[in-house]
Fold this sequence. Notes:
UbiD C-terminal domain-like, Pnp Oxidase, Chain A, 2 domains, nine-stranded antiparallel sheet, five-stranded mixed sheet, alpha+beta, 11 helices
Amino acid sequence: MKNNSIDLRGFLLMLQSENELVRVKRDVNAQYEIAAVTARLDSKQAVLFEKVRGSKSKVVCNVIATPRRFYLALGGTSDIADDADVKKNIHARVAEALHSLLEPTRTQGGGLFEENSSRSLYDLPIVTHFEKDAGPFITSSIVFSEDQENGKQNQSTHRLLRLDDHHMAIRMVEGRHLHKCFTYARDRGEDLKIAIGIGVHPAVNIAAAYQAAYGVDEMQIANSLLDGKLILSKTSYSQLYVPTHTEIVLEGRILNDKTHEEWMVEMLRTYDFKRKQPVFELERIMLRNDAIYHDILPGYAEHRLLMGLPVEAKMYDYIKNVVPTTQSVHLTEGGSNWLSAVIQIKKRLEGEPKNALLAAFTAHPSLKMAIVVDDDINPTDPIAVEYAVATRCQADRDFIIIANVKGSSLDPSSDQDNLLTTKVGIDASATILKAKERFEIAKIPGEEKINLSDYL
C-alpha cells in the first residue's frame, strides 16, 4: 500500500490498515507510564494512547520508528521487505525531494488547528520520560520562525521543557538556523515570535529534521515529499505559515532576556549536560477537534531514525559526488544512528575510500567514526563489517585520525564545552594492488536454494 495522506491522523489510519498501529484504551499517566509502554513496545508498532489523565488529547508514539514506516511516510510502498533496500529507497526519495523543491500552497488563515483554543500548557499531555529529566518535555515540536535578515521562514525541531502554565525552556543548538534568528532579534533587544507545531504528517517532521542549507525553506522539502499536497495557513499572532492540518499549534515568543536551566536524555540514551537556555512565553494554544499529540521517546528508535535517516541521505549525496560508485551509507545502531557510519562503495582506485571518509565527515560534522567497505560486504551487518576490518585493512596504512575537530555535543567522551573530538576513518576495502581472488568470500553453489525442511 502507498500512503496518500496529508496529515498525521490519515497516516495513522494507513498504519492501522497495515497492522502497524496498536491502540491503548486504558487510562494512562503522562508521567513515565506512556514512556514505559512505548519503550517496552520498542519499535514494533506505533502506539496510540486514547485516554491520557488530565488531558482531552490522545498521544501517539513510535510513528516512524522503523525504516519501513519511515519510507511509508515518504510516499513509499509497503512491499519492500529488506531494510537495506528500504533505506536505499529512502535516500533516493530524499535526494529527489531536495533536487525538486516545491513551493507549498499558502492561505491567509483557516487552519484546521483553529477549531479549539487554550492558554495553559497544562491542557497538553506533555510527557515526562526519564527519572532524572528536568521535567516534562515536548519532543516532536517543529518551531517556525522568520529569518529577519533574509525574510524567509525557517523550520526546525527543538525540545521544550514545560516550566509552568505558559513558559517553556527551548533548547537551541548554537549556530543553527533558529539560534541565528534568535540572536539577530536579541541583539536588537527584541523577542522572537514563533509558532510551534505538534502532530503533523511525518514527512513534515522529516523535512524539519533535515539539516538544510541556510536559507532553504524546509516546507518546500516537505511539500516535495508530499507530492505538492502541502497547504500552509497563516497564523494571526506570529504571522507565520504552519501546515493547515497540524493537530496542535502554540504561538508565543522567545524572550530576549530570560534563560532557564534544562537537560534531558538525548540520542545516546544518556543525560545531556545542564545548560541555560532561552525561555518561550506562550500567547495561545490552538487545537484540532480530538487533537492527537505526538511524543517522541528520546534515545529510542523513532528519535534516532528521525534524526539519522535524513543525515544518511545527505551523507550519501555528498559522498556520491566524490565517489560516484558509492552504493549506500548506514549510520549504525551501535553509534546511536549518529556517531558511527559504514559506507559501501564499488572500489575502482586506491585512495577512493579516503575521499569517501573525508566527504562523510564534511557532510555530518557530528560523525565520530566511519568505515568504508566493499560492495560484497553488507554495511548493515556488524559481523560482516568487523570481518572487513579484520581481513582487508592495516591500521598503519588504512586508518585516518583527525584530532581536535568539531564534533557532537552529545558524546560524553568528548570535550563537550568546546565541542572538540577526535575522529577516525577506516578504509576496510580490499586493496586492488593484490589479486581480487585473495579477498573473495567462498560460496557453495546452490546453497541459497536449499530448503532445510526438505532434509530435516
